[in-house]
Amino acid sequence: MASEGVGTLGRVPEIQKMSVEQVKALKEQSDLEVNLLQDSLNNIRTATARLEIASNALHHLSLRPQGKKMLVPLTASLYVPGTLDDANKVLVDVGTGYFIEKTMAEGKDYCERKINLLKSNYDQLIEVATKKKSIADEAGVILQAKLKQLAQTP
After folding, report:
1. Rounded to whole angstroms, how far apart are CA atoms 139 and 145?
2. Chain-centre distance for alpha carbon 22
3. Which fold, 22-147?
4. What residues does each domain of the chain span?
5. Mind telling me which Gene3D superfamilies this protein's record contains (predicted)?
6. Distances (CA, A) of 8 to 3, 16, 73, 88, 126
């Protein structure tokens, strides 16, 4: 990892050897990649928040007595009345419309594992986004210097 940081600083002479068009293309590409990474980071934050809400809901569900009347969410805005039959069995959405029946403890464990995985991915993406942002910034500085130099050349 330490060599990667040196690589970013070592890239400046390479960028300075590029033409204005090449530097501009590098900056645009880097900016696009940073934007895509930011979108991915936002998606991970959203997914993590949803899993934390689900984990919290499982905890609260486990505290309710059997036979308790409640509203069951079918969508984000549609709820139907229901009765709690067995608080120890839950359906876990594992993606693409597939659900698996698990015990309450397994459901909570699933949520926690997914949250930890997403947080790990988030940390890795932050690192990549930071490097891409520094490349874009370096390219921008060098592009400005090259454009200024071209403007001053008679």
Report:
1. 10
2. 30
3. Helix Hairpins (1.10.287)
4. 22-147
5. 1.10.287.370
6. 9, 13, 49, 53, 16
Secondary structure in 3-state letters for the chain: CHHHHHHHHHHHHHHHCCCHHHHHHHHHHHHHHHHHHHHHHHHHHHHHHHHHHHHHHHHHHHCCCCCCEEEEECCCCCEEEEECCCCCEEEEEEECCEEEEEEHHHHHHHHHHHHHHHHHHHHHHHHHHHHHHHHHHHHHHHHHHHHHHHHHCC
Residue 54 pairs with which residues in a beta bridge? none
For the whole model, what pTM was predicted? 0.76
- The owner of tokens 């592009």 is 143
Structure tokens that stand for 111 in this block: 């949520």
Q: What is d(CA 27, CA 148) in angstroms, rounded to the nearest whole number?
A: 17
